[in-house]
Each structure stands twice: as structure tokens, then as C-alpha cells.
Design goal:
Elements lengths: L18 H5 L18 E7 L5 E7 L1 H5 L3 E6 L32 E2 L5 E7 L2 H8 L3 E6 L6 H6 L31 E3 L2 H7 L2 E9 L11 E7 L2 E6 L4 H12 L16 H8 L7 E3 L16 H13 L3 E4 L2 H4 L9 E9 L5 E13 L12 H4 L5 E10 L12 H19 L3 H7 L16 H12 L12 E2 L2 E13 L5 E7 L5 E4 L9 H13 L6 E4 L16 H25 L15 E3 L2 E4 L2 E4 H8 L3 E7 L15 E13 L5 E11 L6 H20 L30 E7 L17 H4 L1 H13 L5 E2 L3 H4 L1
The structure holds dioxothiomolybdenum(VI) ion.
Length: 788
């Protein structure tokens, strides 16, 4: 059987199939499933600590317990001990070293904002009130949140119990976000730097940023006997199920084959022996943003399930916006030093990129801070050095292009400084150093960066840009144009899906994927409809249920590249099953044909002796025809031996205005051009790009969780004071795509769109501010006091 693409569905701008549900309020997010429950639903509220280090000396719950409506107050003194079994296989997106935070299992305090109690009451208001009555005393120990000071300390040697600065203890080989080791040296970068005709050496700082999806994290959990069901805000229902099964030690005899797809078969067998994941179900059809905060399963989810079990009733817990700062990770504070050396023609001779990044004192969180630098530009000499600094903060987490976003920012600001030092056009400097392979010599599968530079330059009007900074003035504003390259790896891992063809002429396609906003629903509906030759409205696609076939993490920009081929494979398998039925059915014009001689075209099965539509064959069969299929490598594509580096590229151009009187920067226009392989749905690809640019502008100009140096607590933990870009601040944004389908990566040729748009934006904006004003801001965000 061959499937010929007959309908022009893939590549057509298509509106979200979930749009009407979302705008009419019918899309149900985790906390909103409370509508399914009556008064038996209890409400949990967290109590967090002000202290940043030490041990709980006493915790007084008497008043809280006596308050109206209170059902129970859980603390480390009365909470049941949970098994929290360790997976043999470390699933993706987990820190490699250390122990996850397990509140109420210990009296230890690691950071300010840590949960120390959960109050459960009949109503949310009663729980909120009672939570204010819990009195916690901490024997405080000295806390440390000073990354600058810690960076100056000598590196830890292995003898030390509490290293202050160290390389990651273990290459993060299983992590989605951290595929490769970070300390790499090629050639002799120090000698080449000394000898270079032009050099720059910058120290750059990126403060803590917080994932702030509109939907806060929330969980509803209930037990029926030993079966746990959960609605949880997550980007990965399968992992939430796995983690909950481990936390509660839910055991079984047989191996749950579904997890086979998580990793290599051997690892999977070891990892799930004894864990009955089918007794846990996670159902999350809608995820209102996440940017990475939904990759892990966080302590409040386990606590909600614990409370539900202890109280034998459903419990709902929604994080407050303030708790979103300290309960679900953040983009870590980091410091970077970048040295670039170029010859007289602007060809890079040396790239030295060092990074120091905070992590918590109980876990290592690693990200791809410096990996981009090894893909970015051609250079014979390079060194990247990545160091972690444990501080009294929660464990950081992935936030849209974790690592790449921060690392590329520093590299691209330093590239701009090098161009300025040479008196060269910064776009020309990038063109001259455009690489055909990574620093270790492996070629890219497909790269159309030069075309992206051309298109972006045309769209922003780069040709008219004067070279000198502070040379464009319009009324009270300095005006500037900046450019940045942008980068993001292309990844893929095994995923599976089921396709069910029904006698009523419709198809149902299921997979345990997520849609946190990029449009998984519509893009997968398109892939299924395209494969089956059906109109879009005949396909009903569902996701977000751990009982569906396994899907990988909805992160790393790899849902399209991973789940898309699985949806296609499942649909093809269902077609194959129909063909097998038809050739055995005397009533079919295909009767007696060999399956190999039948093909699907325009929704019709065509054989040597005749043709009929696919759905006519299903209708005559009278029962649904169903198939499940998996597609993709067992391990992340980037970890598989390959002749290619799979990577996406692009560029961002920004035009800014800076008020000459106040120093206030505003972004007027952004043009983003990306080479991401095949664009499946131009509408949602453009939307993702625009969203990524908005986030990048926020990072450049506004966003910062300000850590109080005395209390080690975020001082601006509201959305009123943690400034994110609003509609009023957002400029005109153009999203363009160049390049070709990347069939080396997957049969759809798509490399993923979600994260690359954020990567180059902050540096393009900073570079534009430098062009406008002559001021190079080295510590984000570029608030007006730094620009003036
Ligand atoms: Mo993204 S940080 O992979 O959700």
C-alpha cells in the first residue's frame, strides 16, 4: 500500500479546531473539572515558609484546625510517608543528580517559598483563611543566593561535601533539554584569542525569569480504591502518571508495555517492573500555556493526591500566582563570559564561552546553555565551560528554549560588539561566519540561514541602516536597528497513536500528547486528514489522556516531529487494515487483489480491478477498524548516531525607539525568519513565532524575578510587579519561513517551531538599543535606568 498525498491539507493555513471551544469557555482546564464534582470536592491551600534555609522547629496548626470548614491540616508531623520509588530509568526532563523536593516528608528548608503545610477545607475561602492561621517556626541556617559571589569561589574538588561551583556531575544524557556534554575544547582557543586581530570580551547577566502561563498550575485528584485519577496542568500526561505511580508505590505483576516507548526496551522493562501505571490515569485535554513549567510533575500534585487518599474524597489545589514563583521552577539566573577573536576579515578564530548558572541545593538542573555556541558559527578554535552553583532557590526548570535562549543571547550580543569593534555591519559579520557544520565537523541536515538573512534584511529595511550608533533620531526618540541569529536543535523521539475508522464515515485519532497552545490539536488533525484523504471535519483528534497511546514530552519543540509521524503511521496502519478487509470481501471492487497492489488516493482505495472510497469499505464492514502504531527512535534523535546535526536556524531583526529624555526603550517592529523544515500549519507556526518574539521582548526589556538579598525571597511575586509584555507593549511582528522539508529527521520533514522564535529576540532587541543609543546593556532586563 502506498499513500499518495492528495489533499492540500498539510501546509495550508488552518484555524485551530479548538478555537470555538476555547473562546466559548467550553475547553476544560485542570482546575475547571471541579464542575464534575459536587460538595464532596475539598479544597487544598499551601502554606509556604519565609525562611530560606534551616529546619522547622515547630509548626502550630491548632488554630487552623479549629477554623470553620477545615477538614485536615497536613504537615511533616502527620503526613503519611510516601514511597517515592526511584525509577531505574531516569525519564527525560529530570535533573540528573540530587533528590526531588518532597514537602511534608522532611523538616528541612532549602529555599524561601517552600511548602510546609497543606490546609484542606470544604471551600477554597475557608482553606485560604485557615492557611493564614498556621504558625511555623524555623531554626534558620545561613542562606546563600548570591551567584556573583559564588562564581568567584574556587571550583569544588571531589573531596568537598558541599561544592559551591562545579561542572554537572553527570552528562545529562537522558534529558530532553540537555543532550550533549557542555565542556568542549576544539583547537587552542586561548592562543587564537591572543593572536586575533580583533577581540571582544563581555560579561553578561540574565536574571531569574519565571514561566507565567495564564493558567496557573492546578490539580484535582481522587481515588477509587487503589485507582488514582488526576487532572493536572501538565505538558506530559504519561510522565505525570509514571511519577504518581512511583510516588505512591502502586505495584503490579505485569509490565505495562505502554512505557516501552519511553526509552529503549531494556530500560523500560527495568523501569516499570512492579509499577502498575494502569492504576493511575491523568486526564488533561487542555493546558493553558506552560513554556516548560508543565514538563515535570511538581510537589503540589503529589500532595493533592496524598490528601485525596488520606481524606478519601476528591481534592482540588490551585497554585496562587505568588506560588507560581517558587513551586514550578524558573529560568535560572546565570552569568556568562564570552570572548570572541576574529581575523582582519571578520572570520572568527576563537570562541570562548563560559557560563555559571544557579541550581538548587538539593538538585542539579542542567540546561543547554552553551550547546548553541558549538553550532552557531564556523571557528577553528572554541571552548565552552559550564558551571553550576547550588544556591537557596527552588530547582530551576525549563523555560522556552531552556539554555539556548540564555546562551545565544550572550553570544549574539557579543557578536554585535565584535562587529562594532571592527566597524563592520553586524549582519555581514554573521554572513561571513555562517557554518556548514558544527564545531566538531558534523554537517547540518539542512540549513537555509543565508536565505533567512536576505529575507529578514529586506523586510526590516536593513540596507538603509547607518553603521554608526546614535545616528537615527526621530523627534524625542533615538531609533536603532538590531539583528541576531537564532538557533534551536531539532529533535524527535518515539511516539505512538491510534486511528479508528468508523462506519459513520469519521475517524478518531488518539495519542497521549499535549497542547499547551501551539496547536497540537489542529496540526495532528491535519496530518490525520491528509493521510486518510478525509476532510478535516471528519477527523476527531483527542489528546491529553494517559490511557491513550504513549506520547513523549510536549516540549523541546518536538511534538510535531515526533507525534506527527506517529499519527501518520497509525492512520496508514488503519488504511492497511481496511485494505486487508476489502480484498477478502466479495462485495468489494478490490476483492481478490493483492494488498500491495492497492493504494489510497483522494480518499479512494484503488486496486487493479476497481476502486471504492476508504470509508465506503469501512461502512460495509459495519464495525470500526482500528490500528495503533509507533514511529521514531527509542532515544532522542540528537543522541542517536547520525551523519547529520539536526538543527533549526533563523534570524530576528528588531527596530527600537528609545526616548532620549527618559531612556525608555520600546520595540517598534520585529521581523523573524526561521528555517524549521516543513511548516505543517502556517497559521499556528506564525502564532508560535509571534508568541516567542513577545516572550523574547519581555526578557529583553522587562521580565525579572527580583531576589531580595537579605530575605532570599522574590520581592515582586505578582504579575503587577513582575512585568511581562502586554498587548500595549507588543510591536508589529512579522513571521516568515524559509527552507525545505527536512526528511532526514522524519517523514513529515518538520523540525518544530515552538522555541526558536524566542531564542534570538532578546539579543536583537538589545543590539537595536545599542544601535539607537550607543549603550550596550549587559545585564537583562534593559530597564530605562540602564539605557539612560
Ligand atoms: Mo519547552 S521549555 O520544551 O516546554
Amino acid at each position: 500500500m502506498t499513500t499518495t498525498q492528495t489533499t492540500p491539507i498539510i501546509g495550508q493555513a488552518t484555524r485551530r479546531v479548538t478555537g470555538p471551544l476555547k473562546v466559548s469557555g467550553q475547553a476544560t482546564y485542570a482546575a475547571e473539572f471541579s464542575k464534575d464534582f459536587g460538595p464532596e470536592l475539598a479544597h487544598g491551600v499551601l502554606v509556604t515558609t519565609m525562611a530560606a534555609s534551616g529546619r522547622i522547629a515547630s509548626i502550630d496548626t491548632e488554630q487552623a484546625e479549629a477554623a470553620p470548614g477545615v477538614v485536615r491540616v497536613f504537615t511533616h508531623l502527620n503526613a503519611p510517608e510516601l514511597p517515592y520509588e526511584e525509577p531505574v530509568m531516569r525519564p527525560q526532563v529530570q535533573p540528573q543528580v540530587g533528590d526531588p523536593l518532597r514537602p511534608l516528608q522532611t523538616d528541612q528548608i532549602f529555599f524561601s517559598g517552600q511548602t510546609v503545610a497543606v490546609v484542606v477545607a470544604e471551600t477554597l475561602e475557608q482553606a485560604e483563611h485557615a492557611a493564614t492561621l498556621v504558625r511555623v517556626t524555623v531554626d534558620e541556617a545561613p542562606a546563600d543566593t548570591n551567584l556573583h559571589a559564588a562564581r568567584q569561589r574556587p571550583e569544588a574538588d571531589e573531596e568537598q561535601d558541599t561544592p559551591r561551583v562545579s561542572a554537572p556531575k553527570k552528562p545529562a544524557e537522558n534529558s530532553t533539554m540537555t543532550g550533549r556534554p557542555s565542556d568542549v575544547t576544539v583547537g587552542d582557543p586561548d592562543a587564537a584569542f591572543e593572536a586575533a586581530a580583533h577581540t571582544v570580551d563581555l560579561d553578561i547577566e540574565i536574571k531569574t525569569l519565571v514561566n507565567h502561563p495564564i493558567e496557573p498550575h492546578a490539580t484535582i485528584a481522587w481515588w477509587e480504591g487503589n485507582k488514582l485519577t488526576v487532572h493536572d496542568k501538565t505538558q506530559w500526561v504519561d510522565n505525570a502518571r509514571h511519577k504518581l505511580a512511583l510516588a505512591f508505590g502502586i505495584r503490579q505483576e505485569e509490565i505495562d508495555l505502554k512505557v516501552d516507548a519511553l526509552n529503549t526496551a531494556k530500560d523500560a522493562v527495568e523501569s516499570v517492573l512492579g509499577i502498575r501505571e494502569s492504576s493511575v490515569r491523568v486526564i488533561t485535554p487542555f493546558t493553558g500555556g506552560g513554556f516548560g513549567s508543565g514538563l515535570r510533575t511538581w510537589p503540589h500534585t503529589f500532595l493533592t493526591a496524598m490528601a485525596a487518599r488520606e481524606l478519601d474524597r476528591p481534592v482540588r489545589l490551585v497554585l496562587t500566582r505568588a506560588e507560581m514563583f517558587t513551586s514550578v521552577g524558573h529560568r535560572p539566573h546565570n552569568l556568562q563570559r564570552v570572548r570572541l577573536g576574529a581575523d582582519a576579515d571578520g572570520r572568527l578564530q576563537s570562541v570562548i564561552h563560559e557560563g555559571w548558572q544557579e541550581t538548587s541545593v538539593y538538585e542539579e538542573y542542567t540546561m543547554n546553555l552553551l550547546n548553541t555556541t558549538r553550532m552557531a558559527y564556523a571557528t577553528p578554535n572554541l571552548r565552552t565551560t559550564y558551571r553550576l552553583v547550588p544556591l537557596n532557590v527552588q530547582t530551576p526548570t525549563s523555560m522556552r528554549a531552556p539554555g539556548e535562549c540564555s546562551g545565544a543571547h550572550a553570544l549574539e550580543v557579543t557578536m554585535d560588539a565584535l562587529a562594532a569593534e571592527m566597524g563592520m555591519d553586524p549582519l555581514e559579520l554573521r554572513r561571513r561566519n555562517n557554518a556548514t557544520h558544527d564545531v566538531q565537523g558534523t554537517p547540518f541536515s539542512s540549513k537555509h540561514l543565508a536565505e533567512a538573512y536576505d529575507l529578514g534584511a529586506e523586510k526590516i529595511g536593513w540596507a538603509d541602516r547607518p553603521l554608526a550608533p546614535r545616528s537615527m533620531r526621530d523627534g524625542d526618540d533615538w531609533v536603532g536597528l538590531g539583528v541576531s541569529s537564532t538557533f534551536y536543535p531539532a529533535n524527535r523521539i518515539k511516539a505512538s497513536a491510534s486511528a479508528r475508522l468508523l462506519p459513520d464515515g469519521t475517524a478518531q485519532v488518539h495519542t497521549a500528547a499535549s497542547d499547551m497552545g501551539p496547536g497540537t490539536y489542529v496540526s495532528m488533525t491535519m496530518v490525520a486528514a491528509d493521510t486518510l484523504g478525509l476532510p478535516l471535519d471528519k477527523v476527531r483528534f483527542a489528546l491529553g489522556d494517559s490511557d491513550f497511546p504513549h506520547a513523549p514530552v510536549h516540549g523541546g519543540s518536538m511534538t510535531m516531529a515526533s507525534v506527527g509521524p506517529a499519527v501518520r503511521a497509525a492512520c496508514q496502519a488503519a488504511v492497511q487494515a481496511v485494505i486487508e478487509l476489502a480484498i477478502d470481501d466479495d462485495a468489494s471492487p478490490l476483492a481478490g487483489a493483492s494488498a500491495n497492489d492497492v493504494r489510497l488516493e483522494h480518499g479512494e482505495l484503488i486496486g487493479p480491478g476497481g476502486r471504492e472510497t476508504l470509508m465506503d469499505a469501512v461502512r460495509r464492514h459495519g464495525e470500526p477498524v482500528e490500528a495503533t502504531a509507533a514511529s521514531g527512535p527509542n532515544k532522542l534523535q540528537m543522541l542517536m548516531p547520525s551523519d547529520y546535526v539536526f538543527h533549526s536556524y533563523g534570524c530576528v531583526f528588531a527596530r527600537v525607539r528609545v526616548d532620549a529624555r527618559t531612556g525608555e526603550p520600546r520595540v517598534e517592529k520585529v521581523v523573524a525568519v526561521n528555517d524549521v523544515g516543513k511548516v505543517i500549519n502556517p497559521t499556528t507556526a506564525a502564532s508560535q513565532t509571534i508568541g516567542g518574539v513577545v516572550m523574547g521582548i519581555g526578557m529583553a526589556l522587562m521580565e525579572e524575578a527580583i531576589l531580595d538579598p537579605n530575605f532570599h525571597r522574590y520581592a515582586n511575586d505578582t504579575l503587577a510587579e513582575y512585568h511581562a509584555l502586554t498587548n500595549r507593549d507588543a510591536p508589529e511582528i512579522e513571521a516568515h519561513f524559509v527552507g525545505e522539508p527536512d526528511y532526514e529527521l522524519n517523514p513529515l520533514g518538520a523540525r518544530g517551531v515552538g522555541e526558536i522564535a524566542t531564542v534570538g529576540t532578546s539579543s536583537a532587541v538589545i543590539n537595536a538599543i545599542t544601535h539607537a543609543t550607543g549603550v550596550r546593556v549587559l545585564s537583562l532586563p534593559a530597564t530605562l535606568d540602564k539605557v539612560l
